[in-house]
Amino acid sequence: MLQFIANRILTMIGMTLMLSFVCFFIIQLPPGDVISAYAAELAAAGDSSGGQMEEMLRERYGLNQPFVVQYLKWLRNLLVGDLGYSFNLSKPVSEIIESRIGISLLVEMLAITVLWAIAVPIGIYSAVRRYSVGDMFATVFGFIGLAVPNFLLALLIMYLVYVFTGTAVEGLFSAEYANARWSLGRILDFLSHVWIPVVVIATGGAAPIIRVLRANLLDELNKPYVVTARAKGMKESRLIMRYPVRVAMIPLVATVGWVLPTIISSSIVTAIVLNLPTLSPILLRSLLSQDMHLAGALILFMGILTLVGTLVSDLLLAWIDPRIRTGMAT
Amino acid sequence: MSRDQDMTRTDTADFEFAPPAPVAVSGTETQAQLIWRAFRRHKLAMVSLVVLGLLYFVALFAEVLAPNDPHEVNARYTYAPPQEFRLFDRDEDGGWAFRPHVLGYKVEVDQVALRRSFVPDPDKKIYIHLFPRTHETRMWGLFTIDRHLIGVDGRREVLFLMGSDRLGRDLLSRLIYGARITLSIGLAGIVISLLMGVIIGGVSGYYGGLVDNVIQRIIEFIRSIPPIPLWMGFAAALPRDWSALQNYFAITLILSLIGWTELARVVRSRFLSLKSEDYVSAARLDGAGDFRIIWRHMLPAFTSHIIATATLAIPGMILAETALSFLGLGLQSPVISWGVLLQEAQNLRALADAPWLLFPGAFIVVTILAMNFLGDGLRDAADPYGDTQ
Q1: Which residue ranges traverse the bilayer (chain B) (predicted)?
Q2: Which end of chain A has the smaller Cβ count within 10 Å, N or C?
Q3: pLDDT tens-digit series, residues B243-267
Q4: Å from B358 to nearest chain A CA?
């Protein structure tokens, strides 16, 4: 088990390094850099010392050095917590991330919890009662989740809430609670807002989970051990939850690794449409204004979150299923 | 099968032993016929094929089918609702006649909110004609046409079957032109992904070893990162002064750079399972080169699987393009795609005034559903020997 954990953590570190390289590449992509923009500004203001100034600034920030050297410098700064500076918001990037990370994680966790709480029972139900009305309904629900883009679903719910109640739901808090301390009122207010993003993210992500669980469970339901248990007079509900569901869940936990990136992706788009006070709208704004240091750090951050999530699910999986930690199953 | 092998020889013997006429007798059907038969059983997939055929037809002949110029701004009709469409009209002598028409608009001003709103005017009937002479359009950029499938007489009348947007542009026409971009970007993206997937997956599966290991790590890496922020990052870095065409290709390329992994995975696993097949060993012992073995012996064995996987990957491409354009990072106006159209529906105020701006969303949903069903049908049919129901 220890070896398995060490192995997974090493892989994750490697992936994080690769990710950081990609992020730095994205940061460097737009033509020109902040300094030349600054110099152009100076020149426009009639300052003739622009050229000299530019050279000095370049030297100072190491912009004349080769790509790899710049990357290593950036990486070293990252490791000591210096994520760079956002020229548009005039704040250090780490401060911006800090101020919003809590809410971001909270919404994400809530959505993923609700997603599993919805998808697993539906998956079990539609396998056990195959071809029933409920199963058909679940299939339709799954296809809608598959085909309706998250941003469209978010827009639609926003529109319907507006039509039926006359209130515009945006963000996560009403104006009076936006900067208040946590209290019962604020929690209730939060819950009255947070259901929209949670529903949107859960609907989009539930479809593949329902499908996989249903298919796995259908395979298990006719196996001899189920028939044996039934023949011995075991209660049907207890039987299903006790044996086949546990087996069918295993490949499902394995899929968390590839479900998570999609869920995070969809939550980013949803948060932008609903203008939630999370990191996602900041990512969009920073990209639109080509504030690349902020954008690169945010992409890196979201990627690392996903990698950590995947790592946790991998470890959970190994804990549930001994075949995986001993390397018998791939 | 023996017929196929004969065909590869360039003997004149083929003329003497002409292959039997292709009569559909069971037992001598070709692979393609078997697949087609299995596919036809899948009703939903057949319906989807028809729906997609129609959509692509519309996209191809957008210039003829769109009633209005999609870029024409009409300041008098901003956010005009969809017109009431009627097929029949009362004659002079009181009977009913088939004369399709729409009702014109009457402007009403809400005294309280001081807002203009359009209401249908039952007295103003605008008749719809087939192929009337209206605005001029360049067809496929080749020649000019001035007749369109439907239209109204006179320059003063307007035809907004699906309403108009913020600038009074006809939503239906924009939808039709948008179909061209949105549907083609899915295809173009999948072609690039397919090339990358087949080459990289093939190399990985065929050679194995270190190459395979490195490629697998890269694929794992790409798949474990949320794609949307990466797409957003790359798309935001595109130079602002690029032309619409350059932008289009750049976006397609960005989508494919991340989208090829699933295809590569499928190709690799097929290669791995085929590598030890007897006929592949036989070809190798016969002295065939790597390229020939891959191209002539292995690829044909799983083309159908590749097509099915590719079809299932198109919806992802379309959704990604739509999401990027919607966020303002993908294609930019004046280019029209369904995502660009939905951008108009982004704020709640506009949406509350003009809910018809969500029409493009309905088209996206239908397209994605149809492609998923089609892909499912193809996947089930790809291996027609498997099930004997």
Answers
A1: 44-62, 181-209, 221-239, 245-267, 299-318, 354-374
A2: C
A3: 878 888 888 888 888 888 888 888 8
A4: 8
